[in-house]
Each structure stands twice: as C-alpha cells, then as structure tokens.
Amino acid sequence: MDRIVSLGARSYPLYIERGSLGALSPRVDLHRKVLLVTDDGVPEALVRTVLAQCPQGVLEVLPQGEGSKSFDAAQALCARMLRENFTRGDLALALGGGVIGDLTGFAASIYMRGIDYVGLPTTTLSQIDSSVGGKTAINFQGVKNIVGAFHQPRAVFLDADAFSTLPRRHFVNGLAEALKMGLILDPVILSLFEREDWESHVEEIVRRAVLAKADVVERDETEQGERRSLNFGHTIGHGIEAAAEMHGLLHGECVGLGMLYFIENEALRQRTLRILTRLGLPTRADVDPEKVYAALVHDKKGDGSGVRVVVVDAPGHYILRKMDYAALRARVFSGV
Question: Residue 112 and residue 84: Cα distance in Å, rounded?
Fold first, then answer.
C-alpha cells in the first residue's frame, strides 16, 4: 500500500503496484455479492482475473465510450443490483476507464443511499484523473459530469500492467492529466517528461501525479477551495471536447489544449507545447470557437456572472481567478 487518503470515516487505501489487480483479496472483502462493472473495450483477461476472485460476483459489461455515462446506464446498474438482491453490505467494482469509474461510483452512491465501491482503473487517464477523490458523475443533455455526487471508494488499485493493453493514443491521452499536475503542483513531472527516456519513468510520473492529487483531496474533499486547481485545463477543455465530438478528440487531448489558454508565462507555455508535441498530443484543434464558448457557458464551475478559472504563471504555481463571461469569450476566441 502506498498511502491512505485520509478523510476521517471516508478514508481509503491506494495500492500503486504492478500485479495488484490479481491480488485484491484480502485487501478487499470479496466474500459478499459483488457487481463487477466493465465495458467491452477492457481486455477479457483482465475481467477474468478480477471476476475469478469474487465467489459471488456478477458481471455487467457496458458499451465502451461516453454514451455509457448516462441515466440509462446508471439505471441498468441499479436494476441489476436489485435483481441480484444486493444489500447495503455488498460491493461494486469499477474495472475500466474514467467512464466506468464515474458511472459505477454514481450508481453505488444512489443504490440504497450508498453502497461500497472499489476503483480498478485500467487506463492512464482514469488512474491519474479520476481514481482518487470520490467525484462520481454522469453526463446529461450534452453537459459533461453535470449530475453526480461525492462518494469515496473503499479502496483504489492502480496497476501499471494494465497499460500494456492500451492503444498508443489512449496511453498518451491520459498523460495530459499528469502534465497538468506538473504545471500546477509538481514541476518534477515536467522534468521527467523532458527526459529522452521519459517512457521509462511513466510509473513514477503516474505515482507523483496521483499522490499530489491525494494531498489536495485530503485538504479540500468537496472542492470548496484548493481542489478547484485540479480543473486547470478543463474549463475550455470541456468546451473543446463538447464542440469537437465530430473530430473524435479524446478527453486528455482536449485538456492539453485547454491548458494552453491559461498559461500566462510565455516561456512555460512554449515548454508545455514542446512536451505536448513530444507526447504526440495535439497543440491545435480545428473547432468552432462559438461552439466551444456555448458549451462552457454550462460549465458547473460557473455562477451566472462568470467562471472560476485556474491560471498558471510559473512551474508548480497556480492562481484561482474569477473571470466574467466577456473575458472568457475573448480568451476562447484568442485561440491556442
């Protein structure tokens, strides 16, 4: 175990180690009814590895992609637990990427007013971005993560062996979130990305990013202050993501683009562009700024008069700033 995320009665352990998906017990009580939720993009071998450890396990396989992060999918999970007579003492396991983690956590938060769930993230994006912190959510009427709840997992297992199953694009997509953590909190991550052999340091990059996020979550569990820094790159990034669906941009790719709008240090901005290029992440997006702006107006960080944004002015240093919609619109139209 690498550390405990200390949140009082809601504390939970993080296991950051290779092979941990095959060693869930006795770290987690699997001798109860277990709903294993995954999607059809997760390799069957990983599913079998986890399900074999659950004597009373039942499997729910959803279609891969953002379309599964919906009320219909959450209802399907709750219906399955009801059919299987799950009680408050039973467990849900989320095996897959961020969609599966967010959806499973949300269903666990509402079934019988809350049951246990455990995160088993299999992608770089889900391990770095969403595995820690207890944010669960679904999309609704085209707005990303607009319906959700804070519901902390009982444990999280981060197994780097799962990365070998990822297509190259999905592997580097998640690393944009680690770059974000380097820009706002841990400049060592930037230096690791700049090394010629950066790929041999991916486990260290992921570990540093996850532990930095855990520190923030401990200090601000429900995003009243400091945790807002983790939204760096997401304000315009979510707008790009909504506007760019036809272009097929991935979440991390959009966050990487979104960060460029809010780096107010030209030398650091150029450094970030070089890292994005090195990773093979996009540095420009051919999207309609009107559509980007229309999407971000619905951002849940807004309050009617403007949006809280995160600005970076030096490596590892950020500023939280309220920006009115006129200024935000101007920034969107300034491009990257």
Answer: 14
Overall average pLDDT of the 113-126 stretch: 97
Buried b (16+ CB within 10 A) or exposed e, 203-231: eebbbbbbbbbbbbbbebbebeeebbbbb
State the pLDDT at residue 335.
Answer: 78
Residues sharing a CB contact under 8 Å with residue 270, sequence separation 6 or more, in sequence order: none
d(CA 263, CA 283): 14
For residue 317, CA distances in Å to 89, 182, 332 come to: 43, 9, 22
| List of E strands, the chain | 3-5, 12-16, 33-39, 56-62, 91-96, 116-121, 135-140, 143-150, 155-158, 306-314, 317-324
DSSP 131-156: SSS-EEEEEETTEEEEEEEE---SEE
Taking phi over 0 as left and psi of -120 to 50 as alpha, with beta for the rest, 133 belongs to left
2 pLDDT band (50/70/90 cuts)? Answer: confident
CB of 179 closer than 8 Å to CB of 276: yes
> Tokens representing 328?
């935000």
At 299 the pLDDT is 62
pLDDT tens, 35-79? 999 999 999 999 999 999 999 999 999 999 989 999 999 999 999
Catalytic machinery residues: 113, 135, 177, 213, 223, 227, 231, 234, 238, 251
Distance separating alpha carbons of residues 120 and 253, to the nearest angstrom = 23
Question: Could you give the CA distance from residue 124 to residue 133 in angstroms, rounded to a whole number?
Answer: 16
Distance CA 190, CA 316 (A): 9
For the chain, give the mean pLDDT.
Answer: 94
Contact assessment for residue 332 and residue 285, using Cβ atoms and an 8 Å cutoff: no
Picking from 129, 75, 80, 127, the residue whose alpha carbon sits closest to that of residue 106 is 75
Decide if 162 contacts 46 (C-beta within 8 A).
yes
pTM metric for this prediction: 0.91
